[in-house]
Amino acid sequence: MKANIMYEAGDVRVEDVPKPQLEESTDSVLKVVAACICGSDLHPYRHMHADEQGGGEPMGHEVIGRIEEMGSGVTDFKKGDLVVVPFAYGDNTCPYCQEGLQTSCVNGGFMSGCQAEYVRIPQAQGSMFKLPDEIGDDSPLLPSLLTISDVYGTGYHAAVMGGVNENTTVTVVGDGAVGLLAVLSAKKLGARKIILMGRHKERTDLGVEFGATDVVSERGDEGIAKVHELTNGEGTHVVLECVGLMPAYDMSVGVVRPGGVISRVGAPQYEEAGVGFASLFRHNITLTGGPAPTRAYMDELLPDILDGSLNPGRVFDVTMGIDDVPEGYRAMNDREALKVLVKP
Amino acid sequence: MKANIMYEAGDVRVEDVPKPQLEESTDSVLKVVAACICGSDLHPYRHMHADEQGGGEPMGHEVIGRIEEMGSGVTDFKKGDLVVVPFAYGDNTCPYCQEGLQTSCVNGGFMSGCQAEYVRIPQAQGSMFKLPDEIGDDSPLLPSLLTISDVYGTGYHAAVMGGVNENTTVTVVGDGAVGLLAVLSAKKLGARKIILMGRHKERTDLGVEFGATDVVSERGDEGIAKVHELTNGEGTHVVLECVGLMPAYDMSVGVVRPGGVISRVGAPQYEEAGVGFASLFRHNITLTGGPAPTRAYMDELLPDILDGSLNPGRVFDVTMGIDDVPEGYRAMNDREALKVLVKP
């Protein structure tokens, strides 16, 4: 079968590899119906060093697929079921999963290899989420349904961890797919003011359609000043940091209101950051967030998609076949594409 | 009048200085009935550099006193009233104060000069908290009442911000007065397991009386391993960091459970710290806390003290006169005293 493998920064190749097999009784194998390229895939695309042994990384962690095979421990599904899988697999039964923190599952891990024709799903019983039988492989709802695997669930996690509600003002840092869906999530949770910080007009325009009340295209100190202008000098109660780079962290510290919350879902590309008196401590700023347990939110996010009231799949602006994934990386990296849907 | 002034590390002097006067209509002047030395006063006592102009810092930020004078803007009190004042003064009317975050009051600041015979209170109307008329200057309740100015309110803030309740397990890092009162606070809020990390047996013994269920005297990796042993390998839901030094931060990261909260009230003596994938992000750890708005908790903490059911004043193990304060600093710094009460 065909799969996309990354060897080092800028080097993604479509290759013929063996079709994945069941390895554990808890596995399933899916025939991929829809996958995609994630903003977080661009971090290795920019910075990955070649493995000295010449090995590559099977790419892709978001997938909708039809069940091709199941191990004996996977009992609540039947072959041919259409399922969506969270980017972090897990058994959905351990104490952390029961608390809704599937990303810390004791039997969990992160998906890989979804930008392919078939993919193996570990802990399939707990990870797979069945989609309604009436959804076909060419359903116009597929892009939106795929977003609950990662980007929509991740934006929603940011908003939930930030404590967004009808009494909070919100700044969203970043106009990538997660940032835009953090806007949608903040709107869904009732935020009355949603300031989107982003520089790409076609993206922030979509953000406004998703519910942003203001757009700030300036960055750094200028951007911070602009948010203060929009908030009576106070900053916003909640900041949803959807980038993961140091300048985004510093900007978040700059725009958060005393007593407020910075909720991060952009995987941090740094380890140390300011947390002392000058940054977080003086005004009781809370720092929260992490990898989103998107499995926990699927039941909640599905209805609005099925009834058409929300359309998070609009973050996909390009659809490509499996052979075009390397070109998809290039297009996203050059910001020609916001997010690439892959249909094998 | 006599006041204690710090000139540089290790140099505190009792001096004759002018009695403070009303400077603003919102001020009051108190005759000090009880003050104390704070663990946070030891940071400058260890590290303060001499001012090139030769100026010193009037020390002390916790006080109970009788109103000697009031400006025209102070209307809800009468001369002679016994009041306790939070270590952070504020108007108690601005938006932050109304939300219970008096430490971010737009007209606020931090108290100083309480280790003296008289002290000026800015924003007196909002800062002063009247104690019942039956409390005399020699009431045995005075030590406990003084703790709501800072250390008890600060320990309580840690527990509140950490979300401590009957379903949470708690680690308290630090066996100073704030750490011990964080134990008391966690107990008051119903925590079922409270692990106190501290090395000083006479202090941790008091911690056990305050409600600690376990004591871990090891530090660093050994201490972390011990907490994991006590918690089925998971760590605790909440960590109350009551020290403010880097090793305490790292230990907090080591003992917090996935999805848990680190609540800091020890003023951080560092600015940068680990917050990335390896420390906070991977398992959705929340970092919270800051200077405690102790004014916000006074109504809540008073009744248990007045009826004798809680005795947070036990953290005071030495009482000294105003002339002995320099010796009090030395004793606390050398860990001969846990916390020094000052009775002018």
From TrEMBL, chains A, B:
Q: Mind telling me what this protein is named?
A: IMP dehydrogenase
Residue ranges occupied by any Enoyl reductase (ER) domain in the UniProt entry: 10-342
Q: Which family does it belong to?
A: Belongs to the zinc-containing alcohol dehydrogenase family.
Signal peptide as annotated in the record: none
Single GO MF annotation: oxidoreductase activity
In terms of Pfam families, this protein maps to: ADH_N (PF08240), ADH_zinc_N (PF00107)
Record-linked InterPro entries: ADH-like_C (IPR013149), ADH-like_N (IPR013154), ADH_Zn_CS (IPR002328), ER (IPR020843), GroES-like_sf (IPR011032), NAD(P)-bd_dom_sf (IPR036291)
Entry cofactors: Zn(2+)
Sorted alphabetically, which PROSITE patterns does this protein's record hold? ADH_ZINC (PS00059)
Q: Which keywords does UniProt give here?
A: Metal-binding, Oxidoreductase, Zinc
